[in-house]
Amino acid sequence: MSSIGRASVLIGAGTIVSRLSGLLRQVVLVAIVGSVQSYAGDAFGLANSLPNAIYAIISTGVLTAVIVPQIVKAASHSDGGRAFISKLFTLGTVILLIATALAMIAAPWIVALYTPASAAPDQIALATAFAYWCLPQIFFYGLYSLLGEVLNARKVFGPYTWAPIVNNVVSLVGFGVFLLIFGGPNTAVDQWTPAMIALLGGVATGGIVLQTIVLLVFWRRAGLQLRPDFQWRGVGLRHIGRLAGWTFLMVIIGQLAGIVQSRVLFEASGNGPAVLASQNAWLVFMLPYSLIVLSIGTPYFTQLSEHAAAGRDDRVRDDIIRSIRVLGLFIVAATAALVAASVPASRIFTNDSREAVAAAPVLLCFLVCLLPLAVLFVIQRTFYAYNDTRTPFFFTLVQGVLVAVTALGAGWALDAGLLPVAELAAAVALGQSLSSLVQVIIATAILNRRLGGIGIREWLLPLFRFILVGIPAGAAGWGVVLLCGGPEGWLSADRLTGALGSALVGGVVLVVYLGILALFRTPELAPALALGRRFLPER
């Protein structure tokens, strides 16, 4: 348990710095392209999301589902898995090069696929120009993910978490240079020149390139000597392909659902929160998810994979119960804090308090699925630990269909005059959250039956208890917002007060939340605080 705690702290500390520097990066980007009601911002947001979406699929789908369990198994080979990893890395690099080249060739069609027919031609042209600069990120994101997952499987967790800071620093400097030369915000499409497009797109991609190079430096720490190896016989391609086939089908589902969402969101571009505003809300949403779920859950997944490979189902069940209870305690606190501070937090990525009030509902609707996604992280990766990628495909299929249906429903309501354009992005976000809730219910039921019980009662009751405690804690945080002048008070006056206000509200929520848990002597509090104290510097 102590090794998991140390790994969690290492990952968590890196995630804190990475996410905070990422938030600063996004703040500067908003100063360049705007946020709410920005045609140029939505064009760049779409183009830059294309490689990001593929990266998310690679890092949480194909690699996590297939590579980590296979590397854990290969570690028992006489060479410690070195030959297997070299073959796998060479194969992955070739695939990534081909995928990136095809994406570059198909850039105009990809952009057209993600935008509705009603989108302005000049906005689509700008998005396509940005896409040519951003799509090379696919190769470097994929390479970074492949390197990082190998390091994680070898229990070298730090570099994968800390490397993105390099990307954020490069982007901050580059975006700062852009502001000095061209100023901002440049929200209209006709404001953008080829030089502006090249600088913004080049900086966005250059940061990813350096991020990957930094990760290569740490490769020897895993005790590996990487060399190109095109002799793929014996690497188990048939077995890996059978496992990866289902995850690639999940890729298709996710992409189709994302296409539907993007096309619907573009209907609000220039008139309310749309593509970029939704991405900013998702960035805030991902801050606690990355810090809590990934930092604590990643080491658990490596340990869980070892127990599953050894056939220790009882230990796997213990890992599931313990990880969900610890994750739930932290996640509910974060959810309550962000709900109360939704407007100040949104103000960080908008240009005035009015835009913050308009963007806050999008964040609130995403937060509905923060706790369910934390549970899904554990449940889904348990399937992966048992080399089962087929079952996750089916419950992901249900989620993808629901995401597309709810997004189309929001678009229909907009066309019918039943939904204001300012609430379209929030409706799409709520549909995604509800779809994820259904997904985690189905996944949990299947896994519980598969393993003959996963202690649902032992972790579900504590989660309900945390939620009950989170309600008065969130109310206390909202009281702070009201005392400070309400949603459009001084907490939302500018970006700095938005950040400070979010910290103030979050601090109050956390104190009340922990105080109530301590008052009722909640058993999960002591181990959670022990884990939290690991983040504090020693005397």
Automatic annotation (TrEMBL):
InterPro entries according to UniProt: Lipid_II_flippase_MurJ/MviN, MurJ
Residues of the signal peptide: none
The keyword Membrane appears for this protein: yes
Lyase recorded as keyword: no
Record's keyword terms, sorted: Cell membrane, Cell shape, Membrane, Peptidoglycan synthesis, Transmembrane, Transmembrane helix
A Pfam family: MurJ
Topology class, membrane: Multi-pass membrane protein
Stretches assigned to coiled coil: none
Location in the cell: Cell membrane
Membrane-spanning intervals of the chain: 7-33, 53-72, 84-112, 124-144, 165-183, 195-219, 240-261, 281-302, 323-345, 357-379, 391-412, 424-447, 459-480, 500-520
Alphabetical list of PANTHER family matching this protein: LIPID II FLIPPASE MURJ
Listed name of the protein: Murein biosynthesis integral membrane protein MurJ
Organism of origin: Microbacterium galbum
